[in-house]
Amino acid sequence: MTKELTGKIAFVTGSGRGLGRAMAERLAELGADVAIHDISWTAPAKFGEAPDLGAVAKAIARHGGKTAAVIGNIGDKAAVARMKEEIEAKLGRVDILVNCAGGDIGASGGKPQPNDALGIPLEDIRALTENNLYGTILVCQAFVPSMVKAGSGSVINIGSAAAQFGVTNGVIYAALKAAVIHYTRCLAADVRREGVRVNAVSPGATKTARFEATRVVDPEKMDSSIKSLIRYGEPEEMADAVAFLAGPRSKYISGQVLRVDGGETLFPG
Ligand SMILES: NC(=O)c1ccc[n+]([C@@H]2O[C@H](COP(=O)([O-])OP(=O)(O)OC[C@H]3O[C@@H](n4cnc5c(N)ncnc54)[C@H](O)[C@@H]3O)[C@@H](O)[C@H]2O)c1
């Protein structure tokens, strides 16, 4: 694998586990120094992926680059400012920002009940908005100005296939991911003359530990050797898309949404 990101510094939010971790691993493999992040030190243990964030940072450091581990709520402006200071002190200015933290997480930490358009409680709407939309915006507001000043940078926001069509379960999550995608386009327009590219990756249903632990999975879709593309995605497939958008091979691409969903949203949206 060419080390095309050597000399670059990446920050991947929500990289203590799941897709974020796979993305952080791939950027490190490509030569970047990577700041790992989660909401708490032990969040990586929630679905058994690692004992804590320190263990994740150590595992990612085996690719040869430097790592730093930071914790904080992305929906809290002061916490984001503190994390930026910590990352800059440990690694330097961030060149690649991946906003992966988020999910269909309500106020009590699980999925909202009910999770539909008319019944979802207000406190869950607030929690989802903080975890998905405010968080992404606040992290961009903190990190993109330094990229603009430097005249270079790549931001990748993580959307969802659920943002592309009407759903009856996870409605506010889907609506917020649609907002993340449109914020991506607007931010790309804002910084288009500044050397900073902003894109989104919209994953389809992907086999992370959380995904498998929080639903009944269809065994027919578990086998990645099925060639039909009607299967669950692998975290590494999302990481490949992020790596492409982070690096030089996508240098003329900005404001786009790469749907990595096996063709699930081929027609709508
Ligand atoms: N796995 C899928 O099928 C799938 C599909 C489409 C989109 N996504 C999106 O991909 C991203 C990663 O999902 P995953 O499946 O790896 O889930 P995950 O729960 O394993 O990872 C999400 C991470 O974000 C962190 N996080 C959430 N809210 C946060 C906050 N307010 N502040 C700081 N950290 C916070 C969590 O602690 C966790 O580490 C999410 O944005 C999710 O919506 C996932």
Brief write-up:
By secondary structure, the chain is of the alpha/beta class. It is 38% helix and 14% strand.
Explain how this protein is built.
The protein is α/β, with parallel strands linked by helices. The protein has one domain (9-260): 3-Layer(aba) Sandwich (Rossmann fold). Helices cover 38% and strands 14% of the residues. It contains seven helices and seven strands; from the N terminus they run βαβαβαβαβαβααβ. Helix 2 (53-61) links the parallel strand 2 and strand 3. Helix 3 runs parallel beside helix 4 (122-150) and helix 4 runs parallel beside helix 5. The radius of gyration is 17 Å and the shape is globular. The chain starts with 8 loop residues before the first strand and ends in a 9-residue tail after the last strand. The mean pLDDT is 96. It binds nicotinamide-adenine-dinucleotide. The site of nicotinamide-adenine-dinucleotide (NAD) has 27 residues, from helix 1, helix 4 and helix 6.
Number of domains: 1
**How would you write the strand order of the largest sheet?**
3-2-1-4-5-6-7
Ligands (ions, cofactors included): nicotinamide-adenine-dinucleotide
* Distance between the ends: 34 Å
**CATH fold label:** Rossmann fold
The ordered H/E elements are EHEHEHEHEHEHHE
Rg, nearest Å: 17 Å
Number of helices: 7
CATH superfamily: NAD(P)-binding Rossmann-like Domain
Helical content, roughly?
A: 25-40%
Net shape:
globular
Beta-strand percent range = 5-15%
Overall number of strands: 7
Rounded mean pLDDT score: 96
Contiguous uncertain segments of 5+ residues: none
Class inferred from helices and paired strands: alpha/beta
Q: Assign the CATH class.
A: Alpha Beta
